[in-house]
Structure formats: C-alpha cells, structure tokens
Specification:
A: 53 residues; mainly alpha; B: 130 residues; alpha/beta; four-stranded mixed β-sheet; 15% strand; globular
C-alpha cells in the first residue's frame, strides 16, 4: 500500500520500517515492548538512511 | 512469522511540498486535461538524506488515526528523547487534531503537509498503523 502510494506520488524511494502486524489490539505494556523491540531499526532509518537516486 | 502491513515511513519533510505539490496559483496539479479528481500528477520527488544526529533537531510524528498508532508513536517519542537528548518532538495529532486521520484526498494531503511544515521539521516519522 505504501509503495503503491509512493509510485502515485512520484516517490521512488523512502525509508520504511516494517513491523509485525497488527499494531492495533495491543495493551499499553505490550505496545511499549513492541516498540522497544523495533526502535533500533527505526532510529537507524531516521539517522542513517540515504537516498540512492 | 507473518510480516504484512507496513508501518512506519520515515522521510525528510523537505520532500513533502513536492509530494503534495501545488501549481503556481496554489492549486493542486491535476492530470492531463482532466477536471475530475485524481490521479494527480506531482512529478518525480527527490529525497534528502536523513540527518546523522537528531540532537537539537525537530522531529514531527504524524499519526493517521488508526487504532493504537498514537500509542506506538508515543513510545517512539519516549525512545527518541532518550536516545537523542535535545531533540524537539512534535506530536502532530495533539497540536492539530484534524490531522489524526487518513488524508483521503489530495486536498487533505496538502493541508496535512502544510500542518507538518509549520513546525519546520528536520524529519517526519509517520505511523501507517492498521
């Protein structure tokens, strides 16, 4: 869905971090653990991602 | 384990005006000769490299209203503040409640992009939670 939207908008690349579905339906504690587990990847994308084009 | 729906898209906000570009008169640009809604042609968008450090930078968090995505971003904000002292975090949905939804159409996309840009962010983190 994201990639098709990017195509429509003329965006050839973007930093995307995929996480396990779903985000909905998690209690607050589980959500925190869930985010903590993927945060290193988010932070890396936020600070190290470079365009290739 | 199934990895399906995407989640977080990180992009420098500087590209947003291009992604949601306006014509010279400020109107959204439509396709060739078409007056009906979409698809809108916006041209190729060139992305900027992300800042190597977020310290002292402004990060806008954008929630699309999907359930629990705000809680997800709340925790992202906590972790960012811990990892990058001095980072300025703007939770867009708390300062512009109208943005806490999917954009639905190009006009709303432009409004939301304008709302993001008003905070002069160095980086935007959007949760596409579902």
């Amino acid at each position: 869905m994201v990639k098709s939207t990017m195509d429509e908008q003329g965006i050839s690349e973007m930093a995307i971090v995929e996480v396990e579905h779903p985000i909905a339906g998690r209690n607050p504690e589980d959500t925190k653990k869930f985010v903590d587990a993927v945060f290193p990847e988010i932070f890396k994308a936020a600070t190290q991602w470079q365009p290739t084009k | 384990m199934k990895k399906s729906l995407m989640i977080l898209a990180l992009a420098l906000v500087l590209v947003l005006p291009m992604a949601c570009s306006k014509g010279p008169d400020g109107s959204a640009q439509k396709g060739d000769g078409s007056e009906e809604a979409g698809p809108y042609k916006v041209g190729e968008v060139k992305m900027n490299p992300h800042p190597a450090s977020l310290e002292g930078r402004t990060v806008v968090l954008r929630w699309n209203g999907k359930f629990n995505g705000d809680k997800f971003l709340e925790r992202v904000a906590e972790n960012l503040a811990s990892k990058a002292p001095g980072v300025r975090i703007v939770k867009l949905w708390t300062v512009d409640k109208a943005t806490a939804t999917t954009s639905e159409n190009p006009e709303n996309s432009i409004k939301f992009a304008d709302s993001v840009l008003a905070h002069k962010p160095d980086l935007v983190i959007a949760s596409n939670a579902d």
